Amino acid sequence: MxxxxxxxxxxxxxxxxxxxxxxxxxxxxxxxxSDEAVQATISRLAIKKKIRSVFRGFYIILPPQYAGMGILxxxxxxxxxxxxxxxxxxxxxxxxxxxxGSSHQKPQEFFVITEFPVLRNTVTAGIKINYLSRNxxxxxxxxxxxxxxGYITVSSPALTAIDLxxxxxxxxxxxxxxTVLSELTDAFNLNDFSSDLLNYSTVSAIQRLxxxxxxxxxxxxxxxxxxxxxxxxxxxxQHIRLNPAKDVKNSAxxxxxxxxxxxxxxxDI
Length: 269
What we know:
A hairpin with a 2-residue loop joins strand 2 (about 50-55) and strand 3. The mean pLDDT is about 90. This protein has a four-stranded mixed sheet with strand order 4-5-7-6. It has helices at about 1-15, 25-30, 35-45, 65, 80-85, 95-100, 155-165, 175-185, 195-200, 205-215, 220-230; strands at about 20, 50-55, 60, 90, 110-115, 120-125, 125-135, 140-145, 150-155, 240, 250-255, 260. The protein is α+β, with helices and mostly antiparallel strands.
């Protein structure tokens, strides 16, 4: 029976540490069968919670320990998903911070940065995969980390720090970003905050990060390294609001970072 053959094939994938497959792979494996027969069998296995679709034409395999949840941690399949889509990517923000020791990652949320065009967020079985996009992804600022199913591409601690500030509105604001930054202290390497990385990032994000490291988290050595690299590369600061969504009435200005301090940053530390 095709069901048993597909089951055997899925079990074989698992024996090799695979937790996912594509519809195209299944069709290639069972070339003697019609597309309709393959799709119908996949649908039956999905109903029995042995597999689940998390993207059009992409399925995750649910071993017994995850069958009750009906989903895998995205870290176990996101690399295969991005490869199937031929997308450069990295796990970022709170998801990356979790790999470096932060405890503020919500297990039901995962953050992925890809190149344009934008991917639509995925919500399935209580898990939300948040997609953000940027014009270019530079592998020099990324790391390949081992997982139970292979590897995952993750932003370096330094890029993670910049992204937490740049995309702070996606994770709950600057207070939460600064809380997570405080937990990444041991993961930071001064040399990672290079001029190349800073040139890869927006000046406004770097200004806000520098201000938070300097004035909120008392990480003056790292802040000074960032400031020195920016000075050396002749990138100019403009006066910007710490919180773009708030007004600036009666706000002080931090002269070093040219930040209009229109909110008080209160990390949970």
